[in-house]
UniProtKB/TrEMBL annotation:
Keywords: Aminopeptidase, Hydrolase, Protease, Signal. Residues 1-21 form the signal peptide. The lineage of its organism: Bacteria, Pseudomonadati, Bacteroidota, Bacteroidia, Bacteroidales. GO terms for molecular function: aminopeptidase activity; dipeptidyl-peptidase activity. This is Aminopeptidase. One of its GO terms (biological process) is proteolysis. Gene3D superfamilies: alpha/beta hydrolase (3.40.50.1820).
Amino acid sequence: MKRIAINILLLLVLAVLPAFAAPDGLRERLAALEGVSGIERLESDHYAEKYLIRVTQRVDPKDPAAGTFTQRVIVGHAGYDRPTVIVTEGYGAAYALNSRYREELTDLLDANLVFVEHRYFLESTPEPCDWDYLTAENSAYDLHRVRDLFRALYPGKWLSTGISKGGQTAMIYRAFFPDDVDASVPYVAPLCRAVEDGRHEPFLRKVGTRRERKAVEAFQLEILKRKAEMLPLLEAYAERKGLRFRVPLAEALDYCVLEYSFALWQWGTSTRRIPPLTSDDATLFDHLVAISDPAYFAEDQPNISFFVQAARELGYYGYDTRPFREYLSIADARGYLSRLMLPRELVGKVAFSPALYEKVYDFLKDNDPRMIFIYGEIDPWSAAMVPRFRGKKNERVFVQPRGSHLARVGNMPEETRAEIIEQLREWGF
C-alpha cells in the first residue's frame, strides 16, 4: 500500500513538472518573450484573453547607441492554432484598450490580435523626443521586431492591417519587409506624392452631386461673409477649449472654412445637416466646429507627430482658395501645414522627400503581394488611392459606393463583402 501511495505521488509530481519546466499560460509565454515588460491583463468582451504589454525597441534600429524606448502592444488571444492579425496603428493605441474593442478582421477570421501603437504617439514616445528618428522605415522595423517576437507564439498565417494612417503604415511595412506577413488589408490608406499632393482639390470639385457641392460651398461662403460675427464666437470657443493659434483668429477661421469641405466628405456627413443659411450666427458656428474643429489648427495637439511625418515623407493635401478669395484674410494657403501645425522647432526646417512614395509605388508595381485595399467613394483621401497596375493577380482594390473614411469590409455591399472574405479564404485564412 505504501509503495502504491509513493508511486501515485511520483506520478502527480511528474504531471506537475511540465508546468514549471516551460511556460504554458499566455501570460507566462508573453513574459518569456525577449524585451517584454509591464504585462497587464485587460478585460475583453471578445477575446479569450487580452493583455497590454510593453516591448523594448531601439530608437534607431540600426544603431544601439541611440538608446531604447518602450512600445505599447495589445494582444488579443483566439488560439495558438489561429491566424494572427497585426494592426499597424498609425497613431495611439488607447482606444484598443477598451473591453468592447474588436478589430474587424480578427472577428471575420477568428484570429489573434497583435495591436502595435505607432512610435512617437502617446506612451510609445521616446525620451528625449528626437524627431530625427520618427521615420517610416523605423516604424517598419518596430513592426518587424514585434512580428519576430510573436512568431513562435503564433506560427500560423499572419495578416497586417490598419486604418487611414495605419493603412499607410501597413503598406510601408510590407514594402520594407515583404515576407513578414502572408497578406495585408489597408483601409482607406492614401499614397501621397507631395506635402500638398494636388489630387484632393480636383476630387472635391467633383465629389457627390452638383447640388451637394453647391450646398457645401454656400455654407463656407456664408461663414466667411459673417466673419465679423464669427470671430467673437471663435475666440470664446478657443478660450473654453484652451486652444492657442500661431496665426490671428481671422486666419484660423479661414482654415476652418477651407477644411470644412474635406472633413464633411471624409466622414460622410450628409449635406442635409447643413443649417439654413438664414440661421443665426451661433447655429452656423456650431455646425462649422462640429465638422471642422478649430483644434485641428491649434498648437500642441496630440497628433503633432503625424504632422511631422506628413511634412517629411507621408504627404498631405492642399486647399483650393479660389472660390473664397474675396473673403479670406490669408493671401494663400500654401505651406499651411508647416506654418500652423509642426512643432515650433521644426517650422521652416522640414523638407518633403518623395523617396517613401517611390519605394511603396515601386514595390506595388514590381511585385504582386497579396493585398486588399478598401476605400470609400466620397472620401477625399481616395483621391490618393494606390495605383491599379495591369496584370496583377493578388492586388485587389474595393471602393464602397458612397463610402467615406469609415469604409470597412463589414459595410461593403453584400456581394463585395463575400468576395473579400472568399479571397482571404483562398489565401489560407
